[in-house]
Every structure is written in C-alpha cells, then in structure tokens.
Amino acid sequence: MTEKPRRESRIQRKNRELILSAALQEFSARGFAGTTIDQIADAAGLSKPNVLYYFASKDTIHVALLQAALEMWLAPLREIQAEGDAADQLLAYARRKLEMSRDYPQESRLFANEILQGAPRLAPILGGELRALVEEKSALIAQWSAQGRIAPVEPRHLLFSIWALTQHYADFEVQVRAVLGEGHDPFAEAQVFLDQLYRRLLAP
Amino acid sequence: MTEKPRRESRIQRKNRELILSAALQEFSARGFAGTTIDQIADAAGLSKPNVLYYFASKDTIHVALLQAALEMWLAPLREIQAEGDAADQLLAYARRKLEMSRDYPQESRLFANEILQGAPRLAPILGGELRALVEEKSALIAQWSAQGRIAPVEPRHLLFSIWALTQHYADFEVQVRAVLGEGHDPFAEAQVFLDQLYRRLLAP
Amino acid sequence: MTEKPRRESRIQRKNRELILSAALQEFSARGFAGTTIDQIADAAGLSKPNVLYYFASKDTIHVALLQAALEMWLAPLREIQAEGDAADQLLAYARRKLEMSRDYPQESRLFANEILQGAPRLAPILGGELRALVEEKSALIAQWSAQGRIAPVEPRHLLFSIWALTQHYADFEVQVRAVLGEGHDPFAEAQVFLDQLYRRLLAP
Amino acid sequence: MTEKPRRESRIQRKNRELILSAALQEFSARGFAGTTIDQIADAAGLSKPNVLYYFASKDTIHVALLQAALEMWLAPLREIQAEGDAADQLLAYARRKLEMSRDYPQESRLFANEILQGAPRLAPILGGELRALVEEKSALIAQWSAQGRIAPVEPRHLLFSIWALTQHYADFEVQVRAVLGEGHDPFAEAQVFLDQLYRRLLAP
DNA sequence: TATGAATGAGTTTTCATTCAT
DNA sequence: GATGAATGAAAACTCATTCAT
C-alpha cells in the first residue's frame, strides 16, 4: 500500500502524507482535471515545486491515492470467510462498507470519479485482481445458496448491490442530505434500512 | 426536456442538438473540467467559435445538459400514483429507472459527476423541487406501509436504494463489465436481481 | 462634412446617421479599441452585418467621425476676421469653443482620444490644414498685438490656451464634476472665468 | 509612489519596474483596451506568462500605474502653502505642473485616457481625496483674493485652468508639435506664455 | 530540501469580418 | 438591403512542469 519506504526521514514521510491527504481532499471534491497542483500545495501548506519534489507529477499523486483507496475497498471483501453464519457475514460486509462510506467518503468519491470516467488507470486491476476476488467470493456465496444457508441469489449482483447501496451514501451525500433535510443521520438510518433489506433478501 | 422553441431555424435547432449531444458525450466521459470546447466542437463537427455562437460559454452548455438530464430523471418518479398495486408500482419504477440507466447512461454519468462534486449547479433544485417530490411520494409509500399493502419500510431510503441500485449499472458500468467479463448482459441480469430484491423487501 | 451623397435613399441616409451617432457615443466613451462593432450595432438598433453594409469596416466609421469632428472644430477658428474689435473676436472664439464643448462633448472626446494616442489618422491634417490655418490666424493676432490693439502675446500659444481651457470641460468632465460636486454648472462658471482671464490677458 | 516594499528580491523589484515602465509606455500610447499583454511583455523583454507572474492581470498593472500617476499629480498641489507670496506660489505651481508634463508625459496621457473614458477606476478618488484637497486649497486661494493679495478669481476654475493648460502640452503633444513645426521648444515657450498669463490674471 | 522564477502549451473567450441567402 | 450563420486570428489568462539556486 505504501510506496517504496527506502530511508525516508521523518519530515519526508510527514510531507508525503500531508500531500496525499491534501490531494485526496481536492481530487475527491473537484475531480482530477478540476484540481490544480497549486490547490494541493496550498491545502498541504507546501510550495508547488516542493509538492513536485515528492511526487514526480500530478498524475503520480493521483495514482498513489487510487491504489491506496482501492486496497482499502478490497480489504473487507477479502475477509468474507467460508466459516461462520452466511447471512451474518454478508450483513457484516454491508455494514463495514457503510462505515467506510461514512468514515472515508473522500476515498469513495475519488474512486467513483475514476470509475465514472472509464477507469483509465484502474481498468487492469478491475478486470484482474478485483474480478478474481469477486469470482472467489461469488463461488462461496453460490455455495451458501446451494446449501440452503441463504436464499438463492445471483452472487455478483448481490455484491454490486452492496457496493451501490453503501457507496451511494458517500458519493451522493449532498443529494441525500438535501433530500432528507436537517435533523437526520443518513448513515444510521441507512444501516437500519440495509439490515432490513438484506435480511429479507437472504432469508432462506 | 426541450428548450424554449422560440423561432429557431431548422439549422439552428440541428446545430444546437449536435452540440448538446457531443457535449453530453464528452462531459459524461471526462467531467466538466476535463472536457475542452475543442473536443466538443470536434465531436459535433463544428468549429469552436461556432459552438460558442450557439452557447455563450462552456458552462452554458453544461447547465443546459444538466437541466435536461434532471428533468429526465424526475419524470418516472412523478408517475408513481396512489392508485394501482403498491409493490407493482415500486417495482415498475425500479424497472423504468434501470432501463434509463441502460438507454441513457451518459445522462446518468453527467448527473453523477455533478453530484459527486458537490452539486454546485444543482444544489437549489435538490433541496427544492426534488426534496418536495420525494416528500410527496414518501408520504404515499408510508401510507401503503401503514395500510399493510407493502412491508413497513423507510420510504426515502427505499427511494435512495432504487436510485443507487439502478444508476450503479450506468455510472459504474466499466467496473460491472470488468467484473462480469464477457458474455453477460448486466442490465438484463440486474433486472432479475432487482425484481427479486424488491419483491422480497416489500412483501407484506 | 457629409460623405459622397450619391443617390442615397431616405432609409440609407437615416441608417448611416444612426450608425455614426451610435459609434460616436461608443467611441467617445470607450475609445476605438475598447469599442466593438456589436456595441455600435446594438446602440444603433441594427444588426452587425448591416452596420458593415454601410461602412466597410470599424475603421471606416472611425475615420468618418474624426473628419466630421475635425471640421466642426476648425469652423470657429476660420471665422476669426481682421475686421472688428480684436479682443472681442478672441473672446468670442473662446466662448464659441466652450459652447461646443458643452454641446458636443462626445466629438471633443473622440478627438482627444485620437490625439492622445499619437493622432495616427490625423497627423497629416494637423501638420497641413490645421497648421496653415493657425499660421494665418497667428499672423493676424500678431498684427493686432503690433498695432497695440491687444497686449503682446505669443499667438499660437494663445490659441493653444483657448483649446486647452475649453476642451478641458468636455474631456475631463467627470473630473470637473467630481471636484465641483452637485449644484454647479461647470460651463456657465467656466464662461465667466474665461472671460475674465482673457480680458485681463489681452488688455493692451 | 512606490509599492509595498515587502521582502522583494532584487530581481523581483527589477522586473516589476520593468513591467510597469513598459506598460506605462504602451498604455499611454494606445490606451488600456488598445494594449495587449504581449506588447507589454515584449517591451519589458519578458515572456507573457512571466508578466502575469508578477501582476495577476492586465488590469492590476493598469491600476498600479494609475495610482502612482495620481499620487505624482497630487503632490505639487499639496505643497501650496498659506505662507509666502500668493501669486508666486500659484505661478510656481503652474511651472511645476508644466515641468511634469514635460518630464512625465506618459503619466499624463495615462491619466487623461482614464478620465476621458469616464474614470471608471478613479471616480471614487476624484470625488474623495482630490475633491477634498481642492476644497482646502481653494479656501486658501479665496482667502488670498479676499485679502487683496491676488485678484478675485474663482479658485477652482483657476486650478482647472492650470491643469488644462499644463497637461495640454503633454496630452496633445503631437498636435502642438505639428502646429508649431520644427525648431520650437513647446515647453519653454509655454512657460513664458503661462507666466505672462497668470501674472496678468492674478495681479491685484 | 526547498522555493522563487520562468515558460510552453494550452484553454476559454472575443471580435472584426465574411458568406450565403 | 438585411441578417443568421460561421470563422480565423487574436487575446487574456491557466497550469503542469522545469530551472537555478
């Protein structure tokens, strides 16, 4: 997940992280093309050439962020195991993904921006690592269905639905909040709704 | 959905539509900031100044597209009626939204791009017209639940789920296709999955 | 003063004058470079191509206006005669020039703009026709001085002073009004002041 | 007259001054709208983006020049004092203003261009600082008249006359030279003329 | 490490002018 | 006469990136 950690001084590591954090904020808010290095440098409190001292180009920063975000999104999926209660595991996955949307909405938006625009930088990973992982977990879910431990569902679309429903609360947050108005906790409400939805869907 | 039809010559209407269609393609693929007027002009087969002869600025084109797309997205929601079978209507709404994702994915992506970036141009509409419409239909859905015609569900999050699940297939199409691989019809499969999901969720 | 009046229809003459009047207003307010043909067309209530139907180019309009304005400025100077009271004639000249600044400030500003920028279009006239005219009238004034009919003054700088003092009230009108504040009639006050000034200067 | 001298490197100060000097030359010769940043950059021997590195926009350069020029023009007026010979002070003021027209004609033309076009950027200063200063000095001049130290004159128009007569030699320099022809020193002659004019006007 | 200085290659827009009807 | 349509040439900025220190 981290870059090449060769002999980084403390200050170097700190600046790298400052830049990544600033860039995440800016990229997720305005997209790659809509963000200037100046904005990143300002947000990071560094000079523009100094930002480029740490990352060779604007693109390099972007790629570093995308890789980190992707790794983050894949982790919970990897944790789905054959052992344990089937429905509980899927519900827990949805819950964990929703928490991530709540706690890391910028990463979600960065990712969404990229996919929306055709995933020029992620395509190989999507068709490679991600696909393989989905295949693996889909086989597991199909098995659960076959064993009658959950209702029969198309496993890949089940996973898509979890992604769509949870990421929606991060990616479309403005819309969700605008529609709900004040006095709502979208993520808490979503958790209740999703629990209900998946319990009913998966009940054998 | 159409613009103001004031004394437009045939050629004018045609060029306007050429530009809007080209711009939709480019904006939805690369975002507002990532698209240049040159690209739009090329895609429309017009010169750059000629594009600006029809639309005062890049932004004007964008706004025209957003308004049309928004109107398109709102229409099916408006059609939900008190009369008729409750669950059927909601299932039909999901189905219609999914068809739109299939048939107008560019509009969906344009819209997603905008919301993702904080909806600078749509915020007032989201909190105004959209919110009011959602309130109205939510009341209807709540009533259906209260009458036992569908299971008790939080109506607004039910609507969010329909939006998220259907638009996902347009907005994240690259990912969906990459994960599924060749030989799949994502939208057809999604239809089956969503039917199942909402039937189970809404069964009283 | 008028262009070639060959077989102009009534409507043609009217449009020509509409354009010239609109252009005078715009050029005098924003300078040649700061004015667009669109602004002139709008002010004239005509379409842009129609403006260019009457005048081959923006420059052509400008030149027509300059020539008319110059002719207008020269006329009163021409009227200074050997006969009559010397001081009275010079006072009358100043008075007439001041009236022109009051009644035709746009022409004055158009002219000033041009001279300020090096008189690219007027240079030959300034060194030709104007110079000759000034020479002629200067000789007359010098003669008056020699005859003791007015005090001895350098005639050309006397003329410069009349130009400067009268045109100032048109060209620097904003400044004059800003300094005087409300409730003043700059031109009426100027008349009194200039009468006093020249009476004292010229008193033999 | 100088800008804010905050931590400017030598090269920065030098380039800033190069740009201002080049811009003064261009703006005074062709007006604001008639001047391009390219021309300024060329005249300064810098690249266009480098000019914009020092000044955020064409307008910023213009404003900086106007402020400096205005300050320069106001200074001599401020120096008129209650003490000393009344007529001498006014004559000295006219002389100083004439010297400035001779030595800084570009500043004069820049200023004239701006006023001519309605003083969009100076209006507040004209009605504020300038007006107050004129009020103050007018009171002084009125007092001198009342005390019989100079002839009774309308003080504000007296000041206008000094401005008009001296600035004319800078602003209308082309015309003055064209009319006088070769072999003349306009400013030297003007000095003699103005001395005579004001001595006669102000003689009690 | 860090940054002030500089710029080439765009990008959006403007505008005088032309063209076709 | 009149104008909708179109555009080449420029003009004001923008920005990722480089350079020198």
TrEMBL record, chains A, B, C, D:
PANTHER family: HTH-TYPE TRANSCRIPTIONAL REGULATOR RUTR. The keyword Disulfide bond does not apply. Keywords: DNA-binding. Residues 13-73 form the HTH tetR-type domain. One of its GO terms (molecular function) is transcription cis-regulatory region binding. Residues 36-55 bind DNA. It comes from Paracoccus shanxieyensis. This is TetR family transcriptional regulator. Gene3D superfamilies: Homeodomain-like, Tetracycline Repressor, domain 2. InterPro entries: Homeodomain-like_sf, HTH-type_TetR-like_transc_reg, HTH_TetR, Tet_transcr_reg_TetR-rel_C_sf, Tscrpt_reg_YcdC_C. It comes from the Bacteria. GO terms for biological process: negative regulation of DNA-templated transcription. PROSITE patterns: HTH_TETR_2.
